[in-house]
């Protein structure tokens, strides 16, 4: 059964049948490519993932409650999303050939980098408060 969106492409060696993806599936493909591009895009993501793995392991050891896990995961997600927005802006404003940046673009890039640092600090405060509360419960016992 072929849909109206099916098309054929003939190659010299063989024929390939491809279907145009539905909009929702194309959105998922772009999302996957964006996540992979964000992870491969810079060393900052390696640092974030390393920090996230330490936070997750510590949370497991401290036996966080459900709501504490929600706050920790939300904090990590916000930091990773902010870093991806920063990388997206960097990809737009930095000239790939010479690395040059227009003055207004440099200002926007500085603000986005500061926004990432603010989310990191906020996440550290939230996670630090949760971990401090759990550690104080262990010492009280």
Automatic annotation (TrEMBL):
<dbReference type="InterPro" id="IPR033717">
    <property type="entry name" value="UDPK"/>
</dbReference>
<keyword id="KW-0444">Lipid biosynthesis</keyword>
<keyword id="KW-0547">Nucleotide-binding</keyword>
<protein>
    <submittedName>
        <fullName>Prokaryotic diacylglycerol kinase</fullName>
    </submittedName>
</protein>
<dbReference type="GO" id="GO:0016301">
    <property type="term" value="F:kinase activity"/>
</dbReference>
<keyword id="KW-0067">ATP-binding</keyword>
<feature type="transmembrane region" description="Helical">
    <location>
        <begin position="109"/>
        <end position="132"/>
    </location>
</feature>
<dbReference type="InterPro" id="IPR036945">
    <property type="entry name" value="DAGK_sf"/>
</dbReference>
<keyword id="KW-0812">Transmembrane</keyword>
<keyword id="KW-0418">Kinase</keyword>
<feature type="active site" description="Proton acceptor">
    <location>
        <position position="83"/>
    </location>
</feature>
<keyword id="KW-0808">Transferase</keyword>
<keyword id="KW-1133">Transmembrane helix</keyword>
<keyword id="KW-0443">Lipid metabolism</keyword>
<feature type="transmembrane region" description="Helical">
    <location>
        <begin position="43"/>
        <end position="62"/>
    </location>
</feature>
<dbReference type="InterPro" id="IPR000829">
    <property type="entry name" value="DAGK"/>
</dbReference>
<keyword id="KW-0472">Membrane</keyword>
<dbReference type="GO" id="GO:0005886">
    <property type="term" value="C:plasma membrane"/>
</dbReference>
<keyword id="KW-1208">Phospholipid metabolism</keyword>
<keyword id="KW-0594">Phospholipid biosynthesis</keyword>
<keyword id="KW-1003">Cell membrane</keyword>
<dbReference type="GO" id="GO:0008654">
    <property type="term" value="P:phospholipid biosynthetic process"/>
</dbReference>
<dbReference type="GO" id="GO:0005524">
    <property type="term" value="F:ATP binding"/>
</dbReference>
<comment type="similarity">
    <text>Belongs to the bacterial diacylglycerol kinase family.</text>
</comment>
<feature type="transmembrane region" description="Helical">
    <location>
        <begin position="69"/>
        <end position="89"/>
    </location>
</feature>
<feature type="binding site">
    <location>
        <position position="83"/>
    </location>
    <ligand>
        <name>substrate</name>
    </ligand>
</feature>
<dbReference type="Pfam" id="PF01219">
    <property type="entry name" value="DAGK_prokar"/>
</dbReference>
